[in-house]
Design brief:
Largest sheet: 10 strands, mixed
Number of strands: 25
Shape: globular
CATH class of the largest domain: Mainly Beta
Number of domains: 3
Strand content: 35-45%
Radius of gyration: 23 Å
Length: about 350
């Protein structure tokens, strides 16, 4: 490691310490560069004897913002990954914990559960489009520099831009995510999910478009959204869901069961007269196991209630045993269910 690179890292670390000392919550506020912070910034640079041009050199601007912070890997659907504009994949692990200043004074705070971007909103230099790949059994939170928050469900991909006012599409979704979009009456926020485009100015809603389901669904919690498809343009109100059949291009508006739709955000799963075989599929999405149910009568037993992921796999198995006299046998990752 050359001396200039060490100096860059040193200055960035001191700048981060000054930002954190200013008692501003970088995770919740988009604008971190107040007059007080700017003064702190320059005072810090003078104190340590470095110039801004030296700390944020052109060399830094030419590389990925994750280079040197995360390990570059090949694509693997079983890993939590982030992809930059150059096509490189970087892995986020359980031990990931990094805070750094990237190009154009973009502040990045990343760990195993969430990534935060903070910046001066007047800066218009963020033209990159990143992607996050969330594997099975995992959820991840993305905080954008405009103050918006996206909670990403398992087996989902989210492509996102950091520049809101000059980007036609802010997010591209494959899978499921819960959105809390910061209010901005001047610049709408747009999400592309298959052939459905959702445009908002500030609101909360859930979008699901897992490929296996063959539909895209938007459920609105607060505010208002405009839905555009090749054949439709529709506003929905809180408590409604809009479902687009991706094959037939039919759009249906219904009242939404929010407790069912949003249960994944609190690691719960609600079911009403649902077959055991279907419930087991949901449990498989939580834990690295596979259920084997040889008896069709057992597969078709219906349950009403809910499961809490936090109570663990054993709680679910014991519930089956106590309520329906169903035994379980665990062999590595395979669980066989039979009637006692």
């Amino acid at each position: 490691m050359d001396k200039s690179y060490k100096n860059d890292i040193f200055v960035q670390q001191k700048y981060i310490e000054l930002l954190e000392a200013s008692n501003i919550d970088l995770h919740k506020k988009a604008k971190i560069f107040s007059k007080r912070n700017i003064l702190l910034f320059f005072a810090g640079l003078i104190l340590f004897g470095f110039s801004i041009s030296f700390a944020l050199s052109s060399k830094t601007n030419t590389k990925s913002i994750f280079e040197g912070q995360l390990n570059e890997v090949n694509f693997d659907a079983n890993k939590l990954l982030i992809k930059d504009l150059s096509g490189k994949y970087y892995q986020i692990t359980d031990s990931t914990k990094a805070k750094f200043i990237a190009n154009n004074n973009l502040f990045v705070d990343i760990n195993a559960d969430e990534i935060h971007f903070s910046s001066d909103q007047k800066n218009s230099g963020y033209k990159d489009f990143y992607q996050i790949f969330v594997p099975k059994h995992k959820q991840y939170s993305l905080f954008l520099n405009d103050g918006s928050n996206i909670q990403i469900n398992a087996k989902s991909q989210v492509g996102f831009a950091l520049q809101r006012n000059h980007t036609p599409i802010n997010v591209k979704l494959k899978g499921e995510a819960y959105f809390k979009i910061a209010h901005n009456p001047t610049h709408p926020f747009t999400i592309q999910a298959d052939e459905m485009e959702v445009q908002v100015f500030g609101t909360e809603f859930n979008i699901s478009n897992y490929q296996k389901n063959n539909y895209t669904q938007v459920a609105l919690v607060n505010g208002s959204v405009r839905i555009k498809t090749p054949k439709h343009q529709q506003f929905i109100v809180p408590g409604q869901e809009a479902t687009l059949n991706n094959k037939l291009h039919q759009l249906r508006i219904n009242d939404a069961d929010m407790s069912q739709i949003l249960s994944w955000t609190s690691n719960k799963s609600y079911f009403n007269e649902e077959k055991l075989s279907s419930i087991c599929k949901k449990v498989e999405s939580w834990f690295p196991v596979h259920f084997i149910i040889p008896n069709k009568k057992i597969r078709d037993i219906k349950f009403t209630g809910y499961l809490n992921k936090g109570e663990g796999l054993l709680h679910f198995l014991q519930m089956l045993n106590y309520t329906e006299n169903i035994s379980y046998k665990i062999n590595k990752n395979n669980i066989t269910l039979n009637k006692i």
